[in-house]
Amino acid sequence: YINGQKMLSVLHKAFNRSTTSIISIGRGSYFILTEQRQHQQHKGLFSMKTTAAALLFTATNTCTSSNCSVQSFAPFISRTSNNNNNLRHRQLHRSGMALFSTSSNRCERVPNRVALLQFNVDHEKEVNLKTASDFIDDAAAQGASLLVLPEIWNGPYATEAFPEYAEKLPNVGEDISDDSILSSTCPSYDLIRRKAIEHNVHIVGGSISERVSSAENSSDSIFNTCMCVNPSGELVAKHRKVHLFDIDVPGGIRFKESDTLTGGSTVSLFDAGEPFGKVGVGICYDIRFPELAMCMIGRGCRILVYPGAFNMTTGPAHWELLQRARAVDGQCYVIAVSPARSNPPSPSDIEGKSSYPHYTAWGHSTVVSPWGEIVSTIDEKPGIVLADLEMNKVDEMRQGIPTGNQKRWDLYTFEDKKA
What we know:
The chain has helices at 4-14, 73-78, 89-100, 125-141, 162-165, 179-185, 187-199, 290-298, 314-330, 347-350, 392-400; strands spanning 18-24, 29-37, 41-42, 45-46, 50-58, 113-118, 146-148, 202-204, 208-212, 221-229, 235-240, 246-248, 254-256, 268-271, 278-281, 301-307, 333-337, 366-368, 374-377, 383-388. The protein is globular. The N and C termini lie far apart (57 Å). It has 419 residues and is α+β, with helices and mostly antiparallel strands. The strands form 5 sheets. Strands 6, 7, 8, 9, 10, 11 and 20 form a 7-stranded mixed sheet that branches. The longest helix has 17 residues, at 125-141.
């Protein structure tokens, strides 16, 4: 039996310039990974020579924020180019969640821990609800306090599919106490609400398609909507995607959300309390517009969250670039969560099933620091990205490089018209 903190200290001394992770596997047992890196950064990923050591041991202390770091487990595998342990990244992610997240192996909730839930989306809503529920349970078992789902997670990402999978959603401040109404009219939101209460966490509910009826219009309006819920199950923010994804890249992809969707008209944020503070929310294409981010930053946001489903054309080129740009511009944390990538189905697979066009998501859900550094990420496969946000870094960045106080309003203007 050995104290976890003492082992951590020993490993740090043994491996100069190393990073060490202690990962709980429950009942006082821990798995330690330590790596020595020769850093060379290229396109946000590490190319390095790595010396790695792993040790399984039993500790006398329990898993707390001071001695249990889960978030660096995924980056250790995905960023180590000379890894010769013959273990595949996907196997580690999936077995990792099963191993570390059983009900008897729960980690205490860590106040500054966020979880990005990247999972495959099926054509059956019930399957997606079950998947989301399992991922939420897994993330909560890892101590996460703020959970984020991907864009359009309850059905196919296809303009023709949005109306079929759309739900009638409540508005902020609207009191619906009848659970039967919620479960029948908006089962996706009801799941998020119930899980937030069950695990005492904030959940940014990715996005789903929303149906809105109006006496002025003969047909319903469909929105791409994110529902944000606090630990009491209260709807604290509702963001309707402001900028619709209408693009036509020659030789790449053509997609026109406005064929079905209506754009939102609000700047959306909520207060997640200490240590996170105010959290701003955009959806996918919204991240391309720094003006919306400036509105959220101007209203006091310290974290910007973007559920998104970039594709195989825009993803490799711009997904990480835009996250880092918004993080440096806003001097804040940026969290972007994608569905996992799924390959186009074969003709036999789709027989009798969904006839909607297949959409291939880029994946690579990521957390970026106020300095523009990749804090934690994943590849295209299903998995949970965990990161403990050092919120003091936001203040350090804003005080050290005080661009917020150095605007030249005599040369240009900016106006938040909804403030």
